[in-house]
Design the sequence.
């Protein structure tokens, strides 16, 4: 089978994990609290971005500008979720980092780099911020929560998804420009590997959204 | 990929990605294992605290029974005996041929002493019922109920245990649970009928008491009297089931 046909099949499969995650999010939307709804919204935006991006790619159009739009939104919404898990100084710092990143990303996309050029810096910074916030959250989990409840918590799975995925793809985005300027074959192989990690990410995310339950149950 | 440098580059990137992935998974597993150990330690500590509290409660209840036994014995042997002696002296001081319409001071004193001795006997029996020791649980329960007024609360009693005996600590704790339950019925239940059933079960017995009163709110289940009953039941390896509603309350002491 020609490589590009294989890649077309793989690219088509990229939809599935996001679609399943979004569907689970919709099922749980009513019983979710506000920060969990923010995550479900993020998954919806991811799905939309993937659809548009894929359509542009199939028509051999440049779809990199989608990433310029998506990255600040993704980080902002993620930080909204994680910020809700903290209080005090940490909460404030996360908020400030989120705002600074969004402003910086807009400046980068409009003034420094072209929106049709890979935003490797924004992506890399996003990965580092999310890894740091994820590790902070693990620290908080170790201090405050009991293991009997840990795997029942949506936060556990969401945080695992974030740490696993963004750790794995940091290197990818650091060298993304080099990868794209190399042969198509190399680019396709590496993006296929990215797809594996993306599948793991959305699988863990799905479990996290599935674990969302009504917060108070009244039995008479 | 035919370009060897591209090959190496790809391998490096992919290896780096997987290494980062494995590191992330290791962190998550570490957190899980650490939390599980912490939770196991907390549970162990909690169990030790509960066991310690339970043993304190049991020791306290046992001490109360020992004190009651001693107090009952002292009441009977010391005070009862001295009052009997006082009565004897007073009786001997009354002239034999005295005939009056009104009782003398001495005769009144003898009457008072008799009343006191009666009260001491009742108190002593409540503290340590001799009939429980001599004849067993069924006889003690029947004797207790016989001394209570028949009006306005009707009683429906079923006994099939007979004279079967159990270890003293089982009988005394079951009897105390019975006493507490009946006292609650009379004091709080506002009922018109009580059903008492004492039957054999699994080589032991089952004691069931039900009233048709007003019941009590759920928060009262944590009251001292009921907690005491629960502790006594646990001490003798029985289960105490209490159900309360606006239609009445039932207490069932059943073997575990």
Sequence:
């Amino acid at each position: 089978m020609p490589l590009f046909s294989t890649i077309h099949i793989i690219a088509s499969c990229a939809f599935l994990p996001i679609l399943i995650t979004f569907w689970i999010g919709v099922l749980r939307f009513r019983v979710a609290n506000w920060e969990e709804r923010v995550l479900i919204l993020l998954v919806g935006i991811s799905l939309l971005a993937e659809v548009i991006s894929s359509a542009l790619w199939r028509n051999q159009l440049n779809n990199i500008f989608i990433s310029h739009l998506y990255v600040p939104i993704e980080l902002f919404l993620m930080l909204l979720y994680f910020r809700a898990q903290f209080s005090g100084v940490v909460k404030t710092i996360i908020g400030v980092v989120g705002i600074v990143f969004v402003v910086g990303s807009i400046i980068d996309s409009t003034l420094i780099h072209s929106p049709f050029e890979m935003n490797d810096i924004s992506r890399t910074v996003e990965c580092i911020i999310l890894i740091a916030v994820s590790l902070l959250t693990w620290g908080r989990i170790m201090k405050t929560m009991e293991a009997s409840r840990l795997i029942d918590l949506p936060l556990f799975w969401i945080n695992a998804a974030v740490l696993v995925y963004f750790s794995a793809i940091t290197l990818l985005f650091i060298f993304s420009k080099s990868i794209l300027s190399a042969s198509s074959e190399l680019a396709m192989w590496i993006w296929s590997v990215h797809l594996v990690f993306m599948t793991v990410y959305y699988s863990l995310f799905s479990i996290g959204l599935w674990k969302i339950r009504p917060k108070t149950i009244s039995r008479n | 990929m035919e370009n060897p440098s591209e090959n190496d580059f790809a391998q490096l990137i992919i290896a780096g990605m997987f290494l980062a992935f494995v590191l992330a998974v290791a962190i998550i597993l570490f957190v899980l294992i650490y939390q599980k150990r912490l939770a196991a330690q907390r549970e162990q500590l909690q169990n030790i605290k509960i066991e310690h509290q339970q043993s304190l409660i049991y020791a306290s209840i046992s001490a109360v029974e020992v004190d009651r036994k001693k107090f009952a014995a002292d009441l009977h042997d010391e005070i009862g005996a001295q009052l009997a002696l006082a009565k004897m002296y007073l009786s001997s001081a009354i002239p034999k041929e005295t005939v009056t319409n009104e009782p003398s001071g001495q005769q009144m004193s003898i009457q008072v002493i008799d009343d006191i001795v009666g009260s001491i006997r009742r108190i002593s029996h409540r503290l340590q019922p001799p009939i429980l020791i001599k004849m067993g649980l069924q006889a003690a329960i029947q004797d207790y109920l016989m001394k209570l007024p028949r009006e306005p609360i009707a009683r429906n009693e079923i006994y099939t245990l007979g004279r079967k005996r159990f270890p003293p600590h089982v009988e005394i704790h079951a009897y105390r649970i019975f006493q507490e339950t009946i006292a609650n019925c009379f004091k709080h239940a506002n009922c018109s009928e009580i059903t008492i059933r004492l039957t054999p079960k699994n080589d032991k017995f089952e004691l069931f008491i039900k009233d048709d009163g007003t019941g009590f709110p759920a928060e009262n289940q944590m009251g001292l009297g009921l907690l005491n009953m629960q502790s006594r039941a646990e001490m003798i390896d029985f289960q105490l089931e209490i159900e309360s509603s606006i239609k009445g309350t039932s207490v069932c002491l059943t073997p575990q």
Summary: Chain A touches chain B at residues 135, 138, 141-142, 145-148, 150-151, 160, 163-164, 167-172, 175, 178-179, 182-183, 185-186, 189-190, 193, 197, 200 (CB under 8 Å). The radius of gyration of chain A is 18 Å. The CA atoms of residues 79 and 98 of chain A lie 6 Å apart.
